[in-house]
Amino acid sequence: MQATSPLISRRARAFVIVVAALGYFVDIFDLLLFAIVRVESLKSLGVAADQIKPVGLWLDNYLQVTGLVLGGIVWGILGDRRGRLSVLFGSIFVYSTANILNAFIADVPDSGAGALLHMVGLGGAIEQYGVLRFIAGFGLAGELGAGITLVSELVSKERRGLATTAVATVGICGAIAAYFITRLVDWRTAFLIGGLMGFALLFLRVGVVESGLFRTAQSTHVAGRGAFWLLFTPWSRLRTYLAVILCAIPIWYSVAILVKYCDSIGASLGMPEGARPAPGLAIMWCYVGLACGDLSSGLLSQWMKSRRRALLIFHALTVVAIALYFTVGPTSLTAFYACTVALGFACGYWAVFVTVAAEQFGTNLRSTAATSAPNFVRWSAAGSAFLWTSSEQMLGSTQSAPWQAALIVAAIVVPIAVTAVFFLRETYGRDLDFVED
Questions:
Q1: In sequence order, what are the residues at sequence separation of 6 or more whose Cβ sits closer than 8 angstroms to the Cβ of residue 432?
Q2: Is there a contact between 225 and 82 (Cβ–Cβ < 8 Å)?
Q3: Residue 435 pLDDT level (bands cut at 50, 70, 90)
Q4: Are the CB atoms for 282 and 259 separated by under 8 Å?
Q5: Distance CA 246, CA 231 (A)
């Protein structure tokens, strides 16, 4: 059965694209919400000023992204075994529940009803925060991969890139919405809104159709559906899977280090205390650039009829944008935010990346690969954070150590990403009606 089966109407396919785009919008809203309210929420919970950075790194760059990578594996396997729709429903229920509970975290007394929470180590608000960020990450991991896989299999090979670009571009705007919501309400209400938006999406998903390619694979009992270990053998398939992951690491290095912790890096670059960037605003401007970049990279890959060339062009732009971030950015607050927009635009090849992740693999492993790969990329934020803090310690306790350490990480991850592109197959216009051995 072809991805564009006549049994599936054009209206049904359009509805799937709209729902996938809105789902990714809520996904990004919830994924970036902690980063936007990090300082405000941790201060209100009594975290000392000098501990906000390490506690924030632990909650976001370690716990949440670890939840993402574990969830990426589990949801990906379920998507190939039970269907793309089951993942869309299950993942959103998990992360929406976690975000609603996140609105009510608090230190509880060690007596009465609170005694049970203390017995399991969750008597403190920070401990509750950590568990819920892990659970939210686990749930968020399934949204994008399942949506992109479903859209890729329902849309014609000529228009597939346009459909996935639309999903990614709309979804990226979730971070922009999250910023403005947090300007209007406190951080607890923002988490509550994010969770409720997720549950509202469940009603939309009732009318979404399942992929014809998956139904065919299921009905004919194709072997190896969701067999995660098959991504690691033979070497040619593992090499492709690693290349898919590595080519996108600069995106999450830029977001997780340069943007989320721009206040610390800005101070180390010598920006005066009253004119340093605010992480929440920097995230908003970065995602303005990312939305424009995703749209541009997706259209470019369609116009050039090449995913690989589009990726290489945007990697080159990333090098330029990182250079501007460290040189022009510190000259003024306006210049810094402008460079943040440029950095977001240059890293806006996520749309092409997720399309490539779905196109590289057969129907029996497509959801597994397309769901786990983006979350391994997000997990790389933990590696980037480790390299950043380790390099900072190596450089010593000087004022310039944070930005110099961040630059060292860039010098490691960007060349790796560029090299990885050359190990990817060109998949523009590829027929997805095939399975992996």
A1: 3, 152, 153, 157, 213, 358, 359, 363, 366
A2: no
A3: confident
A4: yes
A5: 15
Tens of pLDDT, residues 78-102:
888 887 777 878 888 999 999 999 9
Query: Is the distance from CB of 26 to CB of 198 less than 8 angstroms?
Result: yes
Q: Is the dihedral of CA 54, 55, 60, 66 positive or negative?
A: positive
Asked whether the bond before 272 is cis by omega within 30 degrees of 0, the reply is no
Cα 24 from Cα 150, distance rounded (Å)? 13
Q: Which residues contact 415 (CB under 8 A, 6 or more apart)?
A: none
Grouping H, G, I as helix, E, B as strand and the rest as coil, residue 424 is coil
Report the predicted TM-score, pTM, of the whole model to 2 decimal places. Answer: 0.86
Rounded to 5 degrees, what angle do the CA atoms 43, 47, 50 make? Answer: 100
Q: Which of 208, 152, 175 is nearest to 27 (CA)?
A: 175
How many other CB atoms sit within 10 Å of the CB of residue 274?
6
Domain ranges of the chain: 10-421
How many residues appear in the chain?
A: 437
Q: Where would I find the H helices in 256-364?
A: 262-268, 279-304, 307-327, 333-346, 350-359
- Taking domain 10-421, whether its CATH number is 3.40.920.10 is answered by no
* Cβ-proximal residues to 197 (8 Å cutoff; 6+ apart), any chain: 26, 29, 96
